[in-house]
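## Example record

The block below lists the input lines for one assembly entry, exactly as stored, with component labels intact.
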Amino acid sequence: MKNFSIAKSRRLRSTPYTDRIEAHGVSSYTVYNHMLLPASFKSLESDYHHLKKYVQVWDVAAERQVEISGKDSSKLVQLMTCRDLSKSKVGKCYYAPLIDNDGLLVNDPIINKLAEDKWWLSIADADVIFFAKGLAAGNKFEVEINEPNVNILAVQGPLADDLMSKLFGEEIRKLKFFNFDYFELKGHKYFIARSGWSKQGGFEVYVDNDIAGQNLYDYLFEEGKEFNVKPGCPNLIERIEGALLSYGNDFDNRDNPFEANFDKFIHLDSDVDFLGKEKLKKIREKGITRKLMGVKIEHNKIDMYCEKTLFADSKEVVGYVRSATFSPTFNKVIGIAMINKPYWNAKNQFNIEINEKIYVGSVCDLPLV
Amino acid sequence: MKNFSIAKSRRLRSTPYTDRIEAHGVSSYTVYNHMLLPASFKSLESDYHHLKKYVQVWDVAAERQVEISGKDSSKLVQLMTCRDLSKSKVGKCYYAPLIDNDGLLVNDPIINKLAEDKWWLSIADADVIFFAKGLAAGNKFEVEINEPNVNILAVQGPLADDLMSKLFGEEIRKLKFFNFDYFELKGHKYFIARSGWSKQGGFEVYVDNDIAGQNLYDYLFEEGKEFNVKPGCPNLIERIEGALLSYGNDFDNRDNPFEANFDKFIHLDSDVDFLGKEKLKKIREKGITRKLMGVKIEHNKIDMYCEKTLFADSKEVVGYVRSATFSPTFNKVIGIAMINKPYWNAKNQFNIEINEKIYVGSVCDLPLV
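Predicted structure tokens for the full assembly:
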């Protein structure tokens, strides 16, 4: 695939860490929530091997926060998601599909409950803020909605606990998955969650002060030498292996949450009121005809810039692969695909055209094993 | 400025024309409405000179449409904009600022009225679809909202009429500015507006069929040889000279429409109901303290990836430049800046730091002359 450069502008916002990651050798960017998100440093494969063995610092400021606060904030947040948040607790993070009035997916943020009347929706790539503003205005809710200047640094990898406890103290090791708390370092209190867009473990630091964030970036590299710390970013190979879904890649506003395997977060029998509830009940009753599954393809290379069709020998469409990459662990191309119901049995075979040649692949469960 | 490559994926959608513009030598991309938008071909300056003399074909599929139809569609569209659309007519295009409940800008689309109950909002870079969906759900409007598969080809430049009339017939020369109509070519009816994101004149073809669009792309190059047709894209130099504003660059959701000089589209004394009307009345009463103006800087180069501060000799802040580039016509750097009220008199001087050196500039009116 030919390389094209990215034309920077204010509209593709830089982050407080951009100068640092460029000095650290970022080689490609994607754009996410109108912001630069690094996509590779040394190479996808080299970054992948390092992430699975050591610890990386990621500039994921592009995971923007939609802050919703005020009297009706709980009502508004609940209205947007099919996950029942009625028993949610301050200090916890909730992965929650957002749904529109047609029962279709709008986003899959992590919802952080900061107080009974204050929430941060840590969003995937779409302007959830305007969805919230539209709903609030239409329902005449008493809420304040804005995008705070919060720029996340993620610390990911098996040595993340060692590095973070060296900086923030042993207490941080006890922080449970999808919980957050405040930890102090050199006079600044950092909001830190045990979370992150990898399956290698680690933390996300929600930094609300640019200087404190830049200082933290530098401390992590100074103190991380003994753990072989390196700059990194969400890694395409690792995230497909771990079946971490990407809004806009694997699913979008034309898919419903059952098709994207969000079943355990779709609380149709709860008492809470949310958009699309009746539509989703009808979909549940009728059943879906396609869903996201894994695929493995017997080849060593694939360039994805739109979905690719998977065919049966009969020429019937098996489904569409939406994300894919070569995995050195599987030693083949792996991907996430929307598969039609007749082909849901794992190990069903298909054909796919890559660069004008036909390759063979098979359907498999997620996460890939 | 160092070059970084763009990491393609399904999430940064390709267009039906991507293969063609890559064959035609696109050199950089930006991302706009989650889609690839070409940013340069030969070079910014070379593209600029050609655009002002001949005719270019632009892949501006990234100007996505939000289609709003149904019984309450007019009510919803009006609710989103401070421009009075009560006398709007089918076949016309309306440039219209979208406003939220706080009186802040959400977008500045061209609103195309396709029928009394069918509208296309041809949007700048933000997910207006979710704003519309939120408002529709909250107000229980009977509307359908979706993003149709429409991929615009723009034909821009002083020879655009010659090329387009060669393909579509002499009738098309009579199409008035910001009007649209349907024109047939080889069996396909194309929706064509006299509009486009340059001041050089031309058309935008709203193509609703991928094959018809690809055919049109090819016809334009086959028939355009005598007019020296070339591939192009919205040109940073030309659009700053012409003061064509860019959402996300020159203004965003923290600015109000008075600050962005949209005064003639803010119809506070009309009878129509729209979001933020009372807030805007208060802003009008109180008056604004900053607004967008032009700037000229005595230098030959500037790289913009965030706003840059403009200082008076007193060290007081004059304002912030948000878009800027070197203009070969002005033989200096020109830009669009948010200027504080004490400095609104054109010719006020300021200092700006570019690459650790101080340069002198002056404030001027828009469009630049």
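The mean pLDDT of chain A is 97. The radius of gyration of chain A is 21 Å.
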